[in-house]
């Protein structure tokens, strides 16, 4: 399963290589803070419990002919969605660190810098 770091996603977005950004967080979280141009399919709670039926029912909202980057809170539940989408034939990737990682990257936080170093060493 693949993942993309926030800095890598930002570079792609700047270059005009825009994947379909699938934000699976609850609607309230998405409304409070989201990556510009992302699409909310709020299936986080079900996936957190191991239930992929909500995502399965909403596959029609996700294009199958372009790259998909899955976004959640911290990147953990997005891995489940990414795995499921991969099994369905999608070209799916998890945003490492989720919105927490994205926001840390945007602000240049120390926590993000430490995580980023760890991601690069893996």
Automatic annotation (TrEMBL):
Alphabetical list of CDD domains matching this protein: RHOD
Segments forming domain Rhodanese: 15-109
PANTHER family recorded: FAD-DEPENDENT OXIDOREDUCTASE, PYRIDINE NUCLEOTIDE-DISULPHIDE OXIDOREDUCTASE
Protein name, per record: Rhodanese-like domain-containing protein
